Amino acid sequence: MPYELHYWDGLQGRGEFVRLALEDAGAPYIEVARESKKSGYGMNAMMKILDSKTEPHIPFAPPFLKDGELIVPHVANILLYLGPKLGLAPQNEGLRYVANGLQLTIADFVAEVHDTHHPLATDLYYEDQKDAAKIRTRNFLDKRVPKFMGYFERVLKQNPAGDTQMIGDQTSYVDLSMFQIVDGLHYAFPRAMKRFGEQYPRVAALHDAVLQRPNIAAYVDSDRRLPFNESGIFRHYPELDQDA
To answer: What are the pLDDT digits (tens) for 211-223?
Structure first.
C-alpha cells in the first residue's frame, strides 16, 4: 500500500522535505491533494481529515503522512517514522534521536526563512509588511544564516564517520533536508548566496552530493518536483536580497 502524503497543492513548502525522502528511497506514495477528485483523493480528501469531528488523532496542519490507518503529523516526526523504513536513518537507535534533533533544528531554520517575508503576521499579505520584511531579512542574512549554516558546517566537520554526511556513515533524511534548504536559499537570495560555497564548503558539497544521487537527480528533473514560487516558504523578492 503506498504512503499518502498530504500537503497543499502547488507548493514545495514543508512537504518537500518528506517528498525528498520518499523519492530517494523509491517508495510508492500518493500526493493526495494533487490527485484527481475522481480517484477519491484531491484537496477535499485532505481537508476532510483536517476538519474531521470524529478522527481520534487529527493533525493540526499539513504536511502529514497516512500509512494505513496511522496518521503521522509534522515534518521531523514524519521523517523520524519513515527514516528506518526507508533506509534513511542511522541503525543505532541513539543516533536516530540525534538525527531527529538535527531535523528539528532545520525546522527552526525553515521557520526563520518564512518570517523573512512574513515578519508581522502570516495572515497578512507580503505587500502589507514589506518594510518590516526588509529589516527582518537583513538580520536573517547577516546574523541568522551564518549562525545556522556555521553550526551545520561544524556538524559535518565533527562527524566521527566523516564530513560527507550530517550523521553516521550513510546518507540520511537529514542530508536530504539540508539539500532542500541550500537549494531554497539559492533561489530566494541568489545575490546573498554567491559566496555560499566559500563560506560553508562542507554544506555546499553535501548539497551537490545529494543532487547526484540517481533518484534525487531524476526527481529534480521530473514534473513531480514542483518549482519554487512566491507562495511557498522560499520566496524570491529582489528587494529583500542583498550582495554577499
So the answer is: 999 999 999 999 9
Number of residues written out for the chain: 244
State if pTM tops 0.85.
yes
* Domains of the chain by start residue, with CATH: 3-86 (3.40.30.10), 93-213+232-240 (1.20.1050.10)
Query: Strand, helix or coil at 110?
Result: helix
Which class for 236: exposed (0-12), middle (13-18), buried (19 or more C-beta within 10 A)?
Answer: middle
Q: How far is CA 69 from CA 37, 73, 146, 212, in A?
A: 20, 13, 42, 35
112, 184 in Cβ contact below 8 A?
no
Tens-digit pLDDT profile for residues 166-206: 999 999 999 999 999 999 999 999 999 999 999 999 999 99
**Among all chains, which residue has been given the C-alpha cell 525546522?**
107
